[in-house]
Amino acid sequence: ESVKNVLTSPENRILIKRMLIKCADISNPCRPLQQCIEWAGRISEEYFAQTDEEKRQGLPVVMPVFDRNTCSIPKSQISFIDYFITDMFDAWDAFADLPNLMQHLDNNFKYWKGLDERKLRSLRPPPE
Known about the structure:
- The protein is an all-alpha fold.
- The protein has 5 helices and no strands.
- It has helices spanning 2-7, 10-25, 33-56, 73-96, 99-117.
- Helix 4 packs antiparallel against helix 5.
- 16% of the residues are buried.
- It comes from Crypturellus soui.
């Protein structure tokens, strides 16, 4: 009933649509683990290339944390989840009840945390 009331207002429907677009844009930590790892690698590589190019051209480095020689991908993912994802998706889950998505988020956070605790900076642990 409360969801129905929220959806009756045109302003609320626009806000919900904007929130959906934003959530979709940054939802990688809510995907199944293997997809999350794959896309974290692709996104990191894009940022590494940007940082490389900024350095090459003598420009200010916009994201110094994405220096490919010093970056910890697990730390970057943990920070991203802590600062941007958790509160937004907790709110979305309260509104729309998304247990699978929230489980993926929890699993992925634990995965990145585990790599970080092992002082690994890569996408995956080394083969054993």
